[in-house]
Predict the structure.
Amino acid sequence: MKLLKSPYTLPNGSVLQNRIAKSAMSENMGTFKNAPTKNLIKAYEVWAKGEAGLLITGNVMIDSRAIGESRNVVVEDRSNFELLQVWAKTVEGTGTHIWPQINHPGRQAFASINKKVVAPSAISLKMGGLTSMFMEPTPLMEEEIWDIIKRFGNTAKILQDAGFSGCQIHGAHGYLVSQFLSPLSNIRQDKWGGSLENRARFVVEIYREIRARVGTDYPIGIKINSADFQRGGFSEEESMEVVQLLSKEGIDLIEISGGTYEKPAMVGHKQKKSTQEREAYFLDYIEKVRKLTQKPLMLTGGFRTAALMEKALTDGKLDVVGLARPFCIYPEIAQDIFTGKRTTFEIIIPKSGIAFIDKTGGVELPWYELQIHRLGKGKRPKNNMSGTSAFIFSLKNIFIKSFIKN
Ligand SMILES: Cc1cc2nc3c(=O)[nH]c(=O)nc-3n(C[C@H](O)[C@H](O)[C@H](O)COP(=O)(O)O)c2cc1C
């Protein structure tokens, strides 16, 4: 595992101690007022001891009026600054980097926990039996767009001051940045819609705003979709153009993923069988991207064997291996690989037995969130946890906050 174990220097000079990164997973472990909790921090203490090169946190929201899940952490001012400092300190002395993922959900926000939902255009999510859980979004006005851009910068700056060693813009999975990029969710006719250049303006301005706030030496990454896997949506060709645009701007790490709530390709659903069965879902795409940018590339989705991780690095397809679900079941996965304790990391796909829920990953994600909650309580992962407990947990998360006054 020579390359997996080797350090990697990002363009700004930050050194990752090895090539294994924990990709973002929404922990849903904040308070109902969206502050970080001791348990959330405890989970990161566990991961920090596992010797990964980089830990990317679950999405941190930039605006308390726009949350994806009821217990997301929101950073919009310095009110929880000391807790953020403790969170950032979890990696102290381990050589691991910790970067928050910064996000705005746009229309992918449950109606029960948001008073108003905004997006580039008034186009509702189409989620089959779950559609009614989301409301029709209100199109953003010009000044609201700029407010959100400023908020991304503000959140990044607070987190930088708290001690996080870099940050990642969530530009994937159908959240607001990805809504602007996709012609299916963005039908604006002003400078924020239409041509790809216009649709990409939002993410470019976010990058510039964060850069202006955090300075030139601070790493800024992005997670971007290879495609949203929807007819007429954000395509591979467009994704490659955006990668080139952001490379020119100076982005420090590009993480490739794919899919949206409507087509959850990021966890292997909704893809062609041949792709789904193959380990590392977006490997074909990253090969094409490699030819277009010199910037560091990270690939996430489906990696399950140390052998394939090493091979992808040796073949020069990518620089950093991103893993999400395996970090829930094997929290010390990097250490396990480096000590030879384990080299294969099978994951579990829990089901509720209700077809339309299982199709959207509606049980799978909460099942993995619950494993993170176990880490936060000082417990070990529990592979035989039932899909039903995850289902009940997710219902609580969707509805309880609506009864709690902020
Ligand atoms: C519980 C859970 C929460 C997730 N939350 C996020 C998130 O906040 N941001 C994000 O970019 N991806 C999120 N993802 C997607 C993962 O980062 C990753 O792209 C996906 O799980 C595929 O990687 P894997 O096959 O290694 O799990 C989440 C995945 C899971 C299982």
In short: DSSP finds 16 helices and 13 strands in the chain. The mean pLDDT is 94. Residues 61 and 241 are 27 Å apart (CA to CA). The radius of gyration is 19 Å.
